[in-house]
Amino acid sequence: MSLKKYVLAGATALAMVGVAITAAHADHFDDGQWGMTAKALKGKTVAYVPISMGFDLAQGWAAAMQKSADKWGYKLVINDPNWSASAGVQAIGQLLAQKPDVLVIQPFDPQSYAKLIKKALDQGTKVVQINMESVTHGDAYVGSDWYDVAATEMDLMEKACGKAAGKNGKIALIPGIPTNPGQMVGTQAINDKLKQYPDLQVVATQAAEYDPTKAHDVALTILKQHPDLCGIPGTWDGQDVGTAAAIKEAGLLGKVYLVTSGGGRQAAACDYIANGSYSAYVSYDGKGQGRDLVGSVVSLLQDSEKAGSHPVGVYSSLKIITKETMSTGSCWTIEDIKANGA
Amino acid sequence: MNGQDIGRFFRSAQFSQEKIVFSIAVVMFVVFSATLQGFLTTGNVISLVQSVSILGVLSIGMALTIFGRGIDLSIVSNMAISVAWVLYLANQHVSLPAALLCGLGLNLAIGLLNGVLIAYVEIPAIFATLAMGTAVYGFGHSILVNSDVIFLPNADPWFKALGGGSVLGIPSPVLWLIALCAVVFLFLRFTRPGRFIFGMGDNPLAARIAGIPVRPMIVLQYLISSLIGFLAGIITATLVNSMNTRVANSTLVYDVILVVAIGGVGLSGGKGSVRNVIVGTLLIGTLFNGMTILDVPYTLQNIVKSVILLIAIVTDSLLNPRDEQTSQQGDI
């Protein structure tokens, strides 16, 4: 074989490989947008630091992002600070050194991550905050409107226990930790609503530290003290499962109107609505939040604007779940998000 | 008067801490009964005892280790993780008895490890169990369970009745506490290992010279405290339909020490009885119940609780001064 033939054979082989590669890409229909999106997302890195990976919401959000990351070929790095703000600060500091494209964080309070967010934006890492907003804005806030959650609970209370319902209006508050920033927003909403509904009367306020056992003990004592109590606007499903147990134990199931709130996972929400433990459940819909989160992350990855230039808010729509309104789609499971995305 | 004089005064006047605390509890009970409407009703008194019965069960376990000059700071983590694992397995369609056996096995393995570390590796109990508590929580969360709060599966009624049932109007947690107090009282009073625990707590070296198998006894002690923790966990889980593993990071373990110390159990070992723990439990129960009825704000409740713990510890050190000959090592 002459040199010319070698070159020709080589060129043919190269061309074939090239055709094969193009064919693999061309497999997917591209209307022009798809290709741009795929190109923008491939190989990017998203860092994720929730307050803990030990609870349903954080796991649901992670599953939603992972599903999207697998589809588009970006990388999701997760760091679990396990309820410690200082561990979170450390984790974010380390992650920022790797210069991720988007940082998804769930702050513990408005203060502890404020400086880190500024640092991230300065180095060009876009920031999404979920379910708690820091004093420093990032590029997006995705999550609950905590004021609205508590206000909705109080509206339900008024409907069930107010004068119009022919009830005595006696309610007991069982907050988590009164000085917790999220709780403080809720307390403000409750106080505002109490002014709006003067027929509601708070007969006791006892904190339960987000612990079901403590909520059980406090609720039991309050119920013994006020057997004619009409309702309890709860705090969080993980705590109020104890409140519900106390109501059942006191023989007041169905008589005391218990509203709680949470992410709306099947085993924590709908199962307890079904067995009558909760009268109503204000869900901020963890699956919906997962979808909002993925949407925000994916658009920021495709966006060439400067980090932090246009902060936006994506507030979760609230679902009120009661026995009457509950349907198969009211709640979600982590397995479902893992399999099908958010 | 300096500290020693005050101590001597109290001792000479026959004031044991148990008597003081019991009197305070009685006085508080009477005052609350007279001033708080709805305090002295059968329903409220039952819920008063019920609200501290799980605390009481844990305190009995803790007291057993303290009698023998030890301490089990891992009792709450151990309880939380081993019982959460039971619920987790049951949620994964493992049969309930099998899940219970797995949880119990894990629980006892942790107790055994505690005992071996303290008795044979000779690590001070306070460090061994402190580290063990963190290790168990971390291990449990990364390997065994996937969530902080594990909900009770739709289990058999007998299982739910363990903590959520009642007999003749008395809630089952109260019955468990009474039964456990009786068993532990008999064990400490009438069995040989029970007496050995006090001997070891009073003077470990003398106990060893006297032929008490000190090391195996230490292991036994931590096995029992683990087991009692498991019981407390099962009662909690079936009472509130869930297990919140975050209690491992809460102040619960300090509340347990508070109950033990306040009842007059000497923290340097060898002194105390089940009665002390009961007295401490009742005082805390009365205090919490009264404060809840009075609707005392959360932060103020914490202040009251911690001041009482401080007073109890100061009284303890006045009434049970350190014995220079025996308190050279191993005490807390």
Describe the structure.
The complex is a heterodimer of chains A (342) and B (332). Chain A has 342 residues and is α/β, with parallel strands linked by helices. Chain A is 47% helix and 15% strand. Chain A has helices at 3-26, 33-41, 56-72, 85-97, 114-122, 146-161, 181-196, 212-225, 237-249, 270-274, 286-302, 334-340, and strands spanning 45-49, 75-78, 102-105, 126-130, 140-143, 170-173, 201-205, 231-233, 257-262, 280-283, 312-315, 319-321. In chain A, the strands form 3 sheets. In chain A, strands 2-1-3-4-5-11 form a 6-stranded parallel β-sheet, sandwiched between helices. A 4-stranded mixed β-sheet of chain A has the order 8-9-10-12, sandwiched between helices. Chain A has a two-stranded parallel sheet with strand order 6-7. In chain A, helix 8 (212-225) runs parallel beside helix 9. The longest helix of chain A is centred in the N-terminal third of the chain and has 24 residues, at 3-26. By secondary structure, chain B is mostly helical. In chain B, the strands form 2 sheets. In chain B, strands 1-4 form a two-stranded antiparallel sheet. A two-stranded antiparallel sheet of chain B has the order 2-3. In chain B, strand 2 (166-167) and strand 3 form a beta hairpin. The two termini of chain B are 27 Å apart. Mean pLDDT of chain B is 87; it is low at 328-332. The chains are: A alpha/beta (342), B mainly alpha (332). At the A-B interface, helix 8 and helix 9 of A face helix 3, helix 11 and helix 13 of B.
